[in-house]
């Protein structure tokens, strides 16, 4: 019997709705599979926790998480209670960085029964490899002067190690897919980091002669996501470019509510973290209509990560069976609830 010990952090807003739904699904899969068992331990770390304790997680929070095989997180952020930069840097970004989750994997593909807003989306299937540890998300900078002369300076940090790691990850992944890597650059306007990014991309690509490589400026690339998404296979992007691109990826799939993600610790020293692309969606919190598919598909990425690709593929099949049968939440134009979608997927799982 394979046992996986998973720390669950529902977090804020709809995270508290879609995480329990997805845990039900994972337990149902384990039941069907027989040889797999999950042990979930829930941590209530969130903005409400912050109000009570003055921090987003306890002092020994990371130490406690380090004992787990994986972390399953919903979303963090309730700007009405806690400023976003405090809640996110105190939990989500802290875990990503301290656990060296340097790769954020974010797929975007056509899903059965879900209407893309594009008129002719064709059959796109993209994987964005987002550098997840540095880049534009940096603590180097500050404010100088005061009042009308005030200037905020924010420095981006691009190390050769992290840049090369993201690029090698992208090429290795593409070797198992459609053998085409696109680098998201902006070296026409950003004079230090992006020419460096291009240089490392050229160097790394020499080790992968069988893979087609191209560099696209992020502005043009964003436009191609809308006009011709089927031209892409794997995209490697900096932290901020990858963040923005994957919200577009979610949008062209049909809704941000369905987009999954995995924050991967590539050296195996720390647990990886599985968390969808969307946030805590305060506007729909508590209404029971949050789309659980982003979190459920994220659970599929967690299964894949633990070598259960067959089960992962089955789960995606079940998701598509249910969306194909018209069980859609309001963000996708339907009237199903979070529970309707979840229970339909569980029913389908039991049939396979
Ligand atoms: P958001 O993703 O929470 O919401 C954007 C829009 O998409 C909203 O209209 C929301 O209702 C809708 N939406 C998102 N997920 C949905 C789902 N599963 N089903 C149906 N509709 C869904 O982004 P935001 O409004 O910019 O951020 C809200 C809060 O979440 C902020 O505090 C932000 O910092 C935080 N945030 C956290 C994460 C994370 O923890 N990974 C990611 C993004 C944003
Ligand atoms: C995401 C989110 C986070 C990010 C925010 C909430 C800090 O947008 O996971 O995509 O920018 O990484
Ligand atoms: Mn984002």
Task: Produce the secondary structure layout.
Layout: E1 2-11, H1 15-33, E2 36-42, H2 47-53, H3 61-66, E3 70-75, H4 84-90, H5 92-98, E4 103-109, E5 125-131, E6 141-144, E7 151-154, H6 160-175, E8 180-185, H7 193-205, E9 212-217, H8 218-227, E10 234-237, H9 239-253, E11 262-264, E12 272-274, H10 293-305, H11 309-324, H12 338-351
Parallel strand pairs: 1-2, 1-3, 3-12, 5-10, 8-9, 8-10
Antiparallel strand pairs: 4-5, 4-11, 6-7, 11-12
Bound molecules: nicotinamide-adenine-dinucleotide, 3-isopropylmalic acid (IPM) and manganese (II) ion (MN).
Manganese (II) ion binds at residues 243, 247.
How many domains make up the 3D coordinates? 2
- Give the proportion of residues in helices: 40-55%
Which distinct ligands sit in these coordinates?
nicotinamide-adenine-dinucleotide, 3-isopropylmalic acid, manganese (II) ion
By CATH, the superfamily of the largest domain comes out as Isopropylmalate Dehydrogenase
Query: What string, H for helix and E for strand, traces the elements in order?
Result: EHEHHEHHEEEEHEHEHEHEEHHH
| SS elements, strand count | 12
Helix and strand composition category: alpha/beta
Major sheet characteristics: 10 strands, mixed
- Determine the number of helices (DSSP H or I, runs of at least 4 residues): 12
Using the CA coordinates, give the radius of gyration. 20 Å
pLDDT < 50 stretches = none
Q: Which architecture of the largest domain would the CATH scheme give at its second level?
A: 3-Layer(aba) Sandwich
C-alpha end-to-end distance: 20 Å
Overall mean pLDDT stands at: 97
Structural shape: globular
User: What percentage of the residues does DSSP assign to strands (E)?
Assistant: 15-25%
Largest sheet: spatial strand order: 2-1-3-12-11-4-5-10-8-9
Domain Isopropylmalate dehydrogenase-like: 5-345
Enzyme class: oxidoreductase
Protein name: D-malate dehydrogenase (decarboxylating)
EC number: 1.1.1.83
